[in-house]
Amino acid sequence: MKYTPLAIPDVFLIEPEIFGDHRGFFMETFRDKEFQRNIAPFTFVQDNHSKSNQGILRGLHYQIKNPQGKLARVILGKVFDVVVDIRKSSPNFGKWLGITLSSDNKKMLWIPPGFAHGFYVLSKEAEFMYKCTDYYAPEYERSIMWNDPAIGIKWPIIQGTKPALSQKDKVGLQLENAEVFH
Fold this sequence. Notes:
Layout: E1 2-5, E2 12-15, E3 18-21, E4 24-27, H1 32-38, E5 46-53, E6 57-63, E7 70-76, E8 78-85, E9 96-102, E10 108-111, E11 115-121, E12 125-132, E13 141-143, H2 167-170
Antiparallel strand pairs: 1-2, 2-10, 3-4, 5-12, 6-11, 6-13, 7-10, 7-12, 8-9, 8-11
């Protein structure tokens, strides 16, 4: 696998080696020792899988206690995946980056603890999978407004539409009012 550090330190793009022929393809999506050597010594405890239709935006989510690192990938369709650094002590606090993940490009994104995360579905539908370094704890889950002008995410919203949001995401807080990491 190829591990590429991105513009915000600690966030990595991971590109697996793909072996394909007329029958299809094979790729390794995770190897613990390699991940620990190239990224950090995290242990994954939970795998999640979601399916969403085009135009759905999920996020920006994080857990203020029991923060989760996430290794994300798309197995069907295409999404614009976004991370926001919400570590107050970081020189990159409030900065974001976005990457297109798809079943075609097979890229993965490492989102370390201390980041808010969200994605927008670009294809007709998408299936999104991610490994987590801590268990889901709904009592600690928080949501930052997807379109907070202080963050300024340039979402590739499909022209003439509004993103479909959950009730939780409709009432997300602006970063300046959100609980963040120190």
